[in-house]
Design a protein that fits this description.
Helix content is about 30%, strand content about 10%. The protein is of the alpha/beta class. This is Palmitoyl-protein thioesterase 1.
Length: about 200
């Protein structure tokens, strides 16, 4: 997430050709990682969701910057200080963010099939819940961020520059084989050819 912010926000940042994201919560995360059904966990989850967009939480708890509760979009847009800006979700769009992000030559988005940390796991591909509901998960191509091209994701995808990669394992548990296949080729100026994997629509 910080790497993407560097690309979008920084005026004097070095040029970035390829951006590889390993389990990044690009569309946000809707809840804290599951901790159980005990009263302590239930109370903690309720407290965090109630106060997550307060000034104190935004200043002192880093994950609060990308917690996006689908049933409180107004609170999210008003109080969350990081992700709404990063994803160009605010009413006034910043064309510079889109221009910079869409200048990438390669965007590799790696999702973990059994991720229990990011909710939903599809956020690693920019997929997410629709506003106001937890019932369904939209694939990236059906989100407003994509269809209205807020940060240039659709532009990159239509140009064949986005790789949607699905690997087994829980959050950040990537095998050496998958690292060699999906990450290492992009550490040089001339990445080897890689298949354009499309997200599975459910």
């Amino acid at each position: 997430m910080i790497g993407r912010a560097l690309i979008e926000f920084c005026d004097d940042a070095p040029p970035v050709k390829s951006f590889v994201s390993v389990g990044g919560p690009h569309a946000g995360t809707a809840s804290i990682p599951f901790c159980g059904v005990t009263w302590i966990c239930i109370m903690l989850d309720s407290m965090i969701k109630t106060e997550i967009y307060s000034d104190y939480m935004q200043e002192h708890l880093a994950p609060s910057g990308f917690l996006k509760i689908p049933t409180d979009i107004a609170g999210y847009l008003e109080g969350c200080r990081f992700l709404p800006k990063l994803n160009n979700e605010l009413p006034v769009k910043n064309s510079t963010y889109k221009e910079r992000f869409s200048s990438l030559e390669n965007l590799v988005l790696i999702m973990f099939e059994h991720d229990t940390i990011l909710i939903p796991k599809e956020t690693s591909w920019f997929g997410y819940y629709p506003d106001g509901s937890f019932k369904t998960i939209l694939p990236p191509q059906e989100t407003k961020l994509y269809t209205e091209d807020w940060i240039g994701l659709r532009t990159l995808d239509e140009a064949g520059k986005v790789m949607f990669v699905n690997v087994s394992g829980n959050h950040l548990q990537i095998s050496h084989e998958d690292m060699k296949k999906h990450i290492v080729p992009y550490l040089s100026d001339k990445p080897s050819s890689s298949s354009h994997l499309q997200p599975i629509k459910k």
